[in-house]
């Protein structure tokens, strides 16, 4: 990198002390003697004089370091312990682990440069709360740090429920089912038994216990389950005031029909879940007179309101996506935008990015164009209501046109033959008080497929429109199964007489035909589970690798910019490449451009990685919350017998899910009777060594619900015909058996009166 030459102002032709300090602070790379000399154009004897100047400055306490990298003295030591505070665009931002300045100044934020390596040398990415020993340097954008060593994890906060043992001592029972043991509480901080709290270690010694820092309330109260997930997964849920202020400013911007395509006359409709919190997509279609259709997919024009580089944009990048729970949504954008100004509402003028599609008689999308438009939604219809109208013959012409256009898209989809796995989705219905009214599997309707196929068409069009302009694309990537996973699938299918030839081209259609050939429902569930396990996880990235599951060569997410940052980036790229910039008032306080920022354009890989991680975090939080709701729903039905299907087989027991409900739980091998069972890992079965009784993946089996823990979401089953006491584990230690486990606050308490979480193995992923 070129260093801009500066003019020394010192009397002897050297830079002044202040010039050196300013140079070090402004340098975009570590500033050593060589860089300083080059920056001020010093040569020969001037370099020798510079060496003496730098030595004097070090002795005076102005700088520290060595000849290859100097930094200002004071503040952050050259080698110090840093604690990761947050992850921004995949890069850890940290602060000194101990910070006690004389002037009370806030701790500086340090950008950590993570070491790179391959194979055994590769290190896991740093996460919030990690501590590292690092070498710090000053660069153009502030302090940077190079990791020397990752330090042992020191848990900053633990989420759990306060419980008391038989001796009256308080303990914190963690709500994470992967954590087995409770931790003693040294300082209750005003918390009472049964309350959900956050605690942190009193000192470095684990024996010192925890002190309660925050009391969150009743762990079984409405909205508590999502709160547990928010804290457990570190999901940002409070907007900084700066972001809220910026959102309020953006929300007041007036829309002009003079600079937007006016589509308000079209009867565009939004078809969404009945309980949708926002509406960012709507669709319209009409026959073109040649056997095909003209269609419009109108998407909320979030990029008009959220400009790159501002506080609002930074917060959206950090969140990556909205997180949806049964009782609340943690939005990516403040509600004034997500639920109001950006949301496509009935009868209100709204800014939209319109994707115009041309669909031929074979269902192929033969043309597309993108405009910034003004729309007025004719109707917001729930999926179930739209389907009812179609089935009853009561649908208005614009709804009938959508179904007719979809029939063509469906034709093209069938020809593509994307992966067709039946993956039931659990739906939690709450009453007005926030209590569980119903938990059921969401019905899959044609109305869902209509919207889905229009959205897929628009997403493909967005990717291809950007490719046509050789513009940056944030692709949605789903790579084909790896060789290792295909070999494992082949070996597993062979255990029950099915073949998978690895010499052929592996396509989604191959898996679809495999599933169609299976007539037995139990075996079909087995094969479907195995195929699902063989798939890779989808992610975002700037280098196209196709979408295997959808059988598409180019695919991007364009249709949900209210709730996904990836879509917002695609919108900004379209604004740039298709010249869709919209003028804004000159006095407006936020960035003028609604296209991609330069830093985004040059660093899409890191941003894509960050939003992929945020997506996985949201999925885990949503799944954990559903598990807790299901466990709460079943807590009153302990002892009942359910029809279940075995979904996992391990040496220590079986995993089973309740058919029609989806609650997953463990069947410990100890409950299967006195017989010893051998685990066949390749066939994924448990086999009785004496009787040959076999438990295998996919088997339907009746099980009795033995335990349901709403705080952890864990379930425990036992065979339905199990006699009382058979297979139960007795407390260890003969002299302690008369002091066996007892219930305290809804949890098991061990022989010594110490609370502990019910010992469950984690749900199979």
Break the fold down into its secondary structure elements and pairings.
Elements: H1 17-26, H2 33-39, H3 45-59, E1 63-66, E2 69-72, E3 79-88, E4 91-96, E5 110-113, E6 131-139, E7 142-150, E8 158-164, E9 170-174, E10 183-187, E11 196-201, E12 210-217, H4 224-233, H5 241-251, E13 261-262, E14 269-272, E15 281-287, E16 293-300, H6 302-305, H7 311-319, E17 323-324, E18 329-330, H8 335-341, E19 349-359, E20 365-376, E21 379-382, H9 383-392, H10 397-416, E22 426-430, E23 436-441, H11 446-468, E24 475-477, H12 483-494, H13 508-516, H14 521-534, E25 539-541, H15 565-577, H16 598-602, H17 604-634, E26 641-650, E27 653-658, E28 664-668, E29 677-680, E30 685-688, E31 694-696, E32 700-709, E33 714-719, E34 742-744, E35 747-749
Parallel strand pairs: 5-7, 10-12, 13-20, 14-21
Antiparallel strand pairs: 1-2, 3-4, 3-6, 4-5, 6-7, 8-9, 8-11, 9-10, 11-12, 15-16, 16-19, 17-18, 19-20, 22-23, 24-25, 26-27, 26-32, 27-28, 29-30, 30-31, 32-33, 34-35
Helix pairs in contact: 4-17, 5-7, 10-11, 11-15, 12-14
3D architecture notes:
- Helix 5 (241-251) packs across helix 7 and helix 10 (397-416) packs across helix 11 (446-468).
- The protein is globular and about 90 Å long.
- The protein is built from 17 helices and 35 strands.
- It has 6 domains: 17-72, Arc Repressor Mutant, subunit A (Orthogonal Bundle); 79-150, OB fold (Dihydrolipoamide Acetyltransferase, E2P); 161-233, no CATH class; 241-416 and 449-465 and 557-588 and 614-624, no CATH class; 483-535, no CATH class; 638-729, Nucleic acid-binding proteins (OB fold (Dihydrolipoamide Acetyltransferase, E2P)), CATH 2.40.50.140.
- The longest helix has 31 residues, at 604-634.
- With 765 residues, it is an alpha+beta fold.
- The chain has a 5-stranded mixed beta barrel. A 5-stranded mixed barrel has the order 8-9-10-12-11. Strands 13-20-19-16-15 form a 5-stranded mixed sheet.
């Amino acid at each position: 990198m070129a260093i801009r030459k500066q003019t020394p102002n010192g009397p002897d032709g050297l830079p002044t002390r202040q010039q050196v300090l300013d140079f070090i602070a402004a340098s975009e790379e570590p500033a050593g003697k060589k860089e300083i000399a080059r920056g001020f154009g010093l040569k020969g004897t001037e370099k020798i004089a510079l060496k003496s100047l730098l030595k004097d400055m070090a002795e005076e306490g102005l700088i520290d370091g060595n000849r290859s990298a100097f930094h200002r003295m004071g503040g952050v030591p050259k080698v110090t312990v840093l604690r990761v505070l947050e992850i921004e665009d995949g890069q850890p931002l940290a602060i000194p682990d101990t910070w006690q300045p004389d002037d009370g100044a806030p701790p500086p934020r340090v950008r950590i440069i993570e070491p790179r390596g391959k194979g055994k040398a590769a290190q896991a990415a740093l996460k919030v709360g990690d501590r590292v020993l690092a070498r710090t340097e000053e660069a153009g954008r502030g302090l940077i740090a190079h990791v020397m060593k990752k330090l042992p994890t020191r848990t900053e906060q633990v989420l759990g429920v306060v419980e008391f043992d038989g001796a009256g001592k308080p303990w914190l029972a963690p709500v994470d089912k992967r954590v087995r043991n409770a931790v003693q509480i040294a300082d209750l901080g005003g918390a009472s038994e049964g309350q959900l709290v956050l605690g942190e270690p009193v000192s470095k010694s684990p024996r010192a216990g925890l002190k309660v820092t925050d009391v969150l309330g009743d762990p079984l109260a409405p909205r508590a389950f999502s709160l547990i997930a928010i804290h457990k997964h570190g999901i940002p849920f409070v907007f900084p005031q700066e972001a809220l202020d910026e959102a309020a400013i953006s929300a007041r911007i007036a829309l002009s029909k003079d600079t937007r395509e006016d589509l308000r006359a079209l009867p565009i409709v939004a078809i969404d879940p009945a309980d949708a919190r926002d509406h960012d997509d709507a669709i319209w279609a009409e026959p073109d007179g040649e056997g095909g259709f003209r269609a419009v997919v109108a998407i909320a024009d979030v990029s008009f309101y959220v400009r790159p580089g501002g506080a609002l944009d930074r917060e959206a990048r950090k969140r990556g996506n909205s997180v949806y729970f049964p009782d609340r949504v943690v939005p990516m954008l403040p509600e004034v935008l997500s639920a109001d100004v950006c949301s496509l509402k009935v009868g209100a003028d709204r800014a939209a990015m319109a994707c115009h599609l041309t669909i031929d008689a074979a269902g192929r999308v033969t043309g597309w164009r993108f405009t910034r438009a003004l729309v007025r939604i004719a109707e917001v219809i729930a999926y179930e209501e739209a389907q009812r109208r179609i089935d009853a013959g009561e649908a208005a012409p614009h709804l009938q046109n959508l179904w007719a256009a979809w029939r063509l898209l469906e034709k093209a989809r069938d020809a593509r033959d994307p992966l067709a796995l039946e993956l039931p989705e659990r739906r939690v219905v709450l009453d007005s008080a926030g209590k569980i009214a119903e938990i059921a599997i969401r019905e899959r309707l044609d109305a869902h497929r209509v919207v889905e196929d229009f959205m897929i068409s628009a997403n493909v069009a967005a990717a291809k429109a950007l490719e046509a302009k050789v513009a940056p694309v944030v692709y949605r990537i789903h790579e084909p199964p790896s060789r290792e996973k295909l070999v494992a699938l082949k070996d597993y299918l062979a255990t029950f007489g099915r073949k998978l030839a690895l010499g052929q081209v592996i396509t989604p259609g191959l898996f679809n035909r495999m599933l169609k050939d299976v007539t037995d429902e139990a075996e079909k569930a087995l094969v479907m589970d195995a195929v699902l396990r063989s798939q890779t996880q989808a992610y975002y990235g700037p280098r196209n690798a196709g979408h295997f599951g959808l059988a598409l060569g180019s695919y991007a997410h364009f249709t949900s910019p209210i709730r996904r940052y990836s879509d917002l980036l695609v919108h900004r790229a379209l604004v740039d490449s298709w010249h869709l910039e919209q003028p804004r008032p000159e006095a407006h306080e936020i960035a003028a451009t609604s296209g991609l920022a330069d830093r985004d354009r040059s660093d899409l890989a890191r941003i894509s990685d960050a939003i992929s991680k945020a997506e996985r975090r949201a999925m885990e939080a949503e799944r954990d919350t559903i598990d807790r709701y299901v466990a709460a729903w079943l807590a009153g039905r302990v002892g009942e017998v359910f029809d279940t299907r075995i979904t996992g087989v391990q040496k220590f027991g079986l995993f089973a899910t309740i058919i029609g409900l989806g609650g997953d739980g463990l069947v410990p091998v100890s409950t299967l009777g006195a017989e010893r069972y051998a685990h066949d890992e390749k066939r994924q079965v448990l086999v009785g060594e004496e009787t040959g009784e076999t438990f295998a993946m996919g088997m339907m089996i009746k099980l009795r619900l033995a335990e349901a823990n709403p705080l952890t979401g864990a379930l425990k089953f036992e065979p339905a015909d199990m006699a009382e006491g058979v297979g139960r584990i007795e407390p260890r230690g003969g002299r302690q058996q008369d002091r066996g486990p007892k219930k305290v606050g809804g949890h098991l308490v061990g022989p010594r009166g110490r609370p502990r979480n019910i010992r469950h193995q984690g749900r199979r992923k």
